Amino acid sequence: MMHTYGYGNWERIRVEIRNAWQFNFDWFFKSRNASELGRRADLLIKLVEKENSDLDGRSRPKSSPRASVTASEKPKKSRSRKRSAPTTEDADAKRMKAVESPASMEA
């Protein structure tokens, strides 16, 4: 509706939202005030502008010094070991130790 009433006419847009059949059951959207609609519109416009600038940047080929590096010259990534999940036997052993330790302290 911003395209119809223009940027900044939040009160008029709020009234149209409340009267539009498309939002009959969208009580959250219908309950927004003019300033909240303005903030939401600003956020959406910023996101669209950012997305457009990202797309413009991707479509142009970049000539960076990294692009000339061959595959053999690229640094190797360090590989870390993944820890496996403990088995049920390990969990049972830990529970048994936890149960035994308070009893050994009483003696």
Question: If you had to describe this structure to a student in words, what would you say it looks like?
Answer:
The chain has 107 residues and is mostly helical. The chain has a domain at 2-60: Homeodomain-like (Arc Repressor Mutant, subunit A). It has helices at residues 2-5, 10-19, 27-30, 34-59, 88-106. The chain is elongated and about 70 Å long. The chain starts with a helix and ends with a helix. The relative contact order is 0.06.
Short précis:
The protein is an all-alpha fold. The protein has helices at 2-5, 10-19, 27-30, 34-59, 88-106.
Question: Which structural class fits the helix and strand makeup?
Answer: mainly alpha
Largest sheet: none
Task: Give the name of the CATH architecture of the domain at 2-60.
Answer: Orthogonal Bundle
Uncertain residue ranges: 64-69
CATH topology of the domain at 2-60: Arc Repressor Mutant, subunit A
Radius of gyration: 30 Å
Identify the quaternary structure here: single chain
Distance between the termini: 78 Å
State the fourth-level CATH superfamily of the domain at 2-60.
Homeodomain-like
Percent of sequence in beta strands: under 5%
